[in-house]
Amino acid sequence: YRQASAGHQLSGIVSYLNESERRLQPQSVSSRPTVVNVNDLASLVDAYKLRAAKLVEMAAKSIQQELQKRVSQEDAWNNSAIDLVRASDAHCHYVVVKLFAAKLGEIGDTGVHSVLSTLALLYALQGIQQHSGDFLQTGLLSVPQLSQVSQRLKDLLAQLRPNAVGLVDAFDYRDEMLNSVLGRYDGNVYEHMFEWARRSPLNKTEVHESYHKYLKPLQAKL
Amino acid sequence: MNPDITRERENATFDVEKLTHILDGGIEKTKRRREIESLVISDPDFQSEDLNFLSRSERYDAAVKKSAHMILKLREYGISDPEEIYYYSLHMINTPLDLHLGMFLPTLLNQASPEQMETFFIPAWNLEIIGTYAQTEMGHGTHLRGLETTATYDPATQEFVMNSPTITSIKWWPGGLGKTSNHAIVLAQLHTQGKCHGLQAFIVPLRSMNTHIPLPGVVVGDIGPKFGFDEVDNGYLKLENVRIPRDHMLMKYAKVEADGTYVKPPSAKLTYGTMVFIRSMIVGEAGHALAKSCTIAIRYSSVRHQSEIRPGEPEPQIMDYQTQQYKLFPLLATAYAYKFVGQYMNQVYHRITGDISQGDFSELPELHALSAGLKAFTTWTASAGIEVCRMACGGHGYSRCSALPDIYVNFVPTCTYEGENTVMMLQTARFLIKS
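ok -> structure tokens follow
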């Protein structure tokens, strides 16, 4: 942030701090065009980028304000730690969304591309919904758009519904690896759950020794 | 086959096999992974009583047996590619030899001088030397500069004297340290000629290679039951004036001459590469743990029928409830997202390893910052996500038969080991603010 603020050109994933530096010049929120198009993944990636940049800027400003109170660099840093963690979280979230979107570009099969696109969109919109405060605060999202996000998210759930089992099958975990009665490939859960329970060590005998040791003597006393 | 789940599969609008190839990184990778998995699953020596029905000691015993068997089989099949070893080991939750394979051997490869490789590597490869990696201390974790264990050089005998000067300096947590290992690579503050030169790595014998009894001055044992990791003897290590020869300090980079003169390593950044590697692996693990949890919860949600949507109609599959979809589908999307990030980090790690060997460190700071942040970001979300999957299975999610409790208790340590997550986030923040 400091290098970008000083006009240095950054390289790598953080180079967005250069770009955002310009776009986040102070101007009234109402006059800034809102960037989120809830149906366009690229637009959502852009929104995550600007949110990250904004949170980095807010954390940096917090440090500066602390320094103006004549505290040491270390104390200024510690007094801004919550903002700093939020900024890192936003940076990572941006990277994950960006990589998901980039992965789609490698997928040739249309059926797979379609279902993964739906997943990517869901992931991005859910993140926006979870962190709507950030997006609203930076003017990247308007209140009416928030309800669009919610509606679109519900549509995506319904759209994914037919492919849910296929999508987990694609992970290709063999039953022996998953070792889960509930997650068996054949779905025959209840028979195997009963079978599993019957093998519990407690069931080695019909009457557990503790009955003779404690319960029966107790009954005799009462 | 349950008719519900059969119908679900008939409804899919895409080719599941093709997506599996994408997740594996190609058809050949899928084929090879399945071959290796079949090798393990069909091997009777890997069958054991359901771990859920065993005591802790029995679980440890079963894990040692499987690890020993795995090492023999890896040699027999000539499997040496780290990725294939990973496929092979996926059937084990955690094993007491994990750190020997995952940390002790790689650290020798990265930091031992040629002479030290001669001395230590083959015995370690043949498990005469069973090693672990002892860094974390009872009172010190992520902040490495705070570690207290000392290694003081004695030029008269050309030995280092190892000590745990305080109770907080006792090594704590390393896997395999309690009962399994007979050596450890111990990270300690190097003192020579009256000056402290910071952390160095030392190979310290812990137990007799004949009787496995702890050596004089070595106080070692199991730290006791934990939330999970029942199969692993995470241990403690207290050193009381243990003397080791000068050539037991790993000297590929930093050195101590016979007279005690300290020679600095060419670059302080060398250990960053290993950190990036380990954290990249953890990012992949987050995708893996979440993917397993989603598989269990979503398959179960397709066969579980409960309550009603329209009065009088049969009980619907619980996956038809919007609330169930809202719990699980975003996590499914997250599992895919993290799997792809894991693939990306793996590719990046291999690229920068090439750069480093050319002496180009330029990308390392950014990748170090990114891997730290992503490790925290993905493990926090995945841990919470596994718990959501478990709860989405209702009461049955609470039974060990679901496997979800095991997945949770064995994944959640990723939030604290290899760097506590909040500290990781602040490392990323440091880079962001500097940038």
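Chain B touches chain A through 86 residues (CB under 8 Å).
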